[in-house]
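Re: [help] complex structure
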Amino acid sequence: MSLEVSQKITIQKVKNSKINQVDFNNLPFGQVYTDHMLVCDFENGKWSSPKIVPYGAISLDPSAKIFHYGQSVFEGMKAYKDAQDDIWLFRPFDNQKRLNISSKRLAMPELPEAYFMEGLEALLLLEKDWIPTTKDSSLYIRPFIFASGNGFHASPSDKYKFIIACSPSGPYFGGKLKVLIEQHYSRSANGGVGFAKAGGNYAGQFYPTNLAIQKGYQQVIWTDDTTHEYIEEAGAMNIFIRINDTLITAPTSDRILDGITRKSIIEIAKDQGIAVEVRNISVHEIIEASDNGSLKEMFGAGTAAVISPISGFGYQEKDYVLPELDNTFAATLKKQITDIQYNRSADKFGWRYSVK
Amino acid sequence: MSLEVSQKITIQKVKNSKINQVDFNNLPFGQVYTDHMLVCDFENGKWSSPKIVPYGAISLDPSAKIFHYGQSVFEGMKAYKDAQDDIWLFRPFDNQKRLNISSKRLAMPELPEAYFMEGLEALLLLEKDWIPTTKDSSLYIRPFIFASGNGFHASPSDKYKFIIACSPSGPYFGGKLKVLIEQHYSRSANGGVGFAKAGGNYAGQFYPTNLAIQKGYQQVIWTDDTTHEYIEEAGAMNIFIRINDTLITAPTSDRILDGITRKSIIEIAKDQGIAVEVRNISVHEIIEASDNGSLKEMFGAGTAAVISPISGFGYQEKDYVLPELDNTFAATLKKQITDIQYNRSADKFGWRYSVK
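Output below.
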């Protein structure tokens, strides 16, 4: 860590850790929080020095703009611990850059790389014991920035709060997913904020997702809002489909999140000699492939979801079932990406980042 | 008020009012808050009884879903005081209903009408002295609901907080507005949440609005995200245009807020014998009307904005100037709606609501 910034990270430790109250063999996703958090305030046009403080309540005026105008962006990351108890991150600079891309679109201040990385590393070193080593578990990391300034005028806040909180977590999804290809509701507009990890993108998905859940699906696959003909993403993950032996995913756009797992999967698959196409995928192409037997797999990819296989999908009141294959692309690619993440294999791409 | 609910509204008064610190002759918009607020919590599937408490900080866990997933909706209302010191609201049940429409789309619990109305009335009676009587001022009322439950899982919160805060306020805009007809960015998607007063709809507008401000405009007029050919709304207000003597506004849709000022203006104008058309308006029609001299007026309409005349607009790097007329529709309609709101005229539509 560069002394310039790290010197300034003050650490206020908890008196008593609550780690002994946690059952690391039965971790939910994102519901248990570690002892500390990183906090950094933006005020008078600049970010203050990051501080590590006990994890605890935030106090805000009722007029704080986060309550009214949705200025919030976040990232999802994971810290992994290997057999030697060393801590690893996966492509963390990509999260840092994307947080700033999101912030810019929401008219929020960008955060210097050093504040993000050095703050995160200092926090992880302090919370090292919280990183689970049980199978499929990791320390989920949630960096987020929100508008903490006051006022009912619909204009950007003059104050923001950057926080990193950590949660030892089990898998996001349990088992295979049944998804609904949405034909009425939409996640994002052309020229909108769909590419940003902005809070408002998620709230808008909950109601249509609840409708899908009532019909027996777990997630919605969003389609473009103009024609509902091209698949986009699933809100908590990007979508891959396999037709025969070709892996296909939609290109990123101003409507689709540039997922770090997504782009890593593309690179790993190409490296494995798998044919990969990044192009628009029409729902009709998927239906046709399902009907003629060439649709072999669908899966979601994201930091929280990792790689989540899809067992079938609904479209216009009809259900389509994916075949049960051995040696799926999903399983192979999941093994390869998690082996890199947990330091169980060589890292030929240079994606792993050591925290020490 | 029905005793059934009002019995349950507990009131905790401040010891010392801060009203004497306020300069009622120089009120900004939405920056000064009254002594008390109404608070009501949703937990275990139901709303608790509303409480009136001193206006003050709200304490939330860093994992509260409002920070991460944008579940927040709000309303904007005003309380007016007439020459007899009586308090008036304008079509308050429409705000109450729309808050629930917004909540439903954001997968948030709907609030019973009595909790909203009786809570609001009790609060206004307590804050009566805060309602300004200076010209163009009113007590701006901000009812809002946000996700207060915890968790990093991208799913609806299990807890919510409903708050009504009040702010004695001057005009939202000063003077006439120069607006930019947006051709790249968009406010909302077909099948999205544009019709809801959801926090995320506002954050997404700030960056494009900043770009417009840098070019010398104050507001953006949004167009449909598919073609950018049809005008929608301006984010903080609906848009009316006058071509010759016909007043035209876009129909509401799932992308456009069903503004209470908008629909009142339509009714008042019709009642005045003004020809009103509610239909799609293309940008080309506006340009053509500007070029041939038939474009007489443009104005915005909203609770905060009231009726805000537009002096000119930019489109594709070119500026168009609106004529300076005497006896504008904007001025006439503004007088008529505010005369009803402030109890300066008869209320033939039955819109005024007495708080006592």
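The CA atoms of residues 191 and 262 of chain A lie 22 Å apart.
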